[in-house]
Design a protein that fits this description.
Layout lengths: L1 H14 L3 H10 L13 H8 L1 H25 L6 H12 L12 H11 L1 H18 L2 H19 L2 H17 L1 H8 L10
Length: about 190
């Protein structure tokens, strides 16, 4: 029980690492919270700091989820890997190191799924990029990926996965409420590199 509690705390702290803030301030002297959408995630980093920084932050945010989900295995603990994975996603959305204002849960959620069932990660990545190529909206593509993850989980019949993916998909879609409104109003920014 003590080991599981430590893993949960560690997962939250790992999720709380504000990759976008660190990369922006360390290498560009910019607080990305003061630019673009004000979000700490990869999308705002791409828009504010460019492709190299955006890729770095996105990869770091994915790996946060992966690492958190692998903690029980590394510690030999009797704790389902999806539990610390979800906790890391919560840490990413509400980071203690950045005033509890973080990202939108997309990359870190993907990282959790990468650790637990990597073929699912590849499927949702494919859905994301097909949607992005067609729509040019990162936010819409993220939500499509969340729906694809939910369908994959249902088909898999893995009950813990269904529960966790339902939670993660809810997080992703709920955190994109403002984006949904902007898409309806045709004011949501489109990517230009794909």
């Amino acid at each position: 029980m003590a080991v599981s509690a430590i893993i949960i705390i560690l997962a939250y702290l790992i999720g709380s690492i504000p990759s976008g803030l660190i990369v922006g301030k360390t290498f560009y002297g910019i607080d990305i919270r003061e630019h673009g959408s004000g979000n700490l995630g990869g999308t705002n980093t791409f828009r504010t700091l460019g492709v190299k920084a955006g890729l770095t932050v996105t990869l770091a945010d994915i790996l946060k989820g992966t690492l958190a989900a692998l903690l029980p295995i590394m510690a030999g603990a009797d704790l389902h890997p999806l539990i610390p994975g979800v906790i890391a996603v919560i840490g990413h959305m509400f980071p203690i190191f950045a005033g509890f204002k973080g990202g939108k849960a997309v990359a870190t959620s993907g990282g959790v799924l990468l650790a637990y069932v990597w073929p699912m990660f590849l499927v949702i990545l494919l859905v994301f990029f097909i949607s992005l190529y067609i729509s040019k909206y990162v936010s819409l593509s993220s939500m499509f990926a969340a729906v694809a993850a939910f369908i994959y989980a249902i088909v898999s019949g893995d009950i813990p996965l269904i529960i966790v993916v339902s939670i993660l998909a809810f997080f992703v879609i709920y955190r994109h409420r403002a984006n949904i409104k902007r898409i309806k109003d045709k004011t949501e920014p489109k990517v230009k590199w794909i």
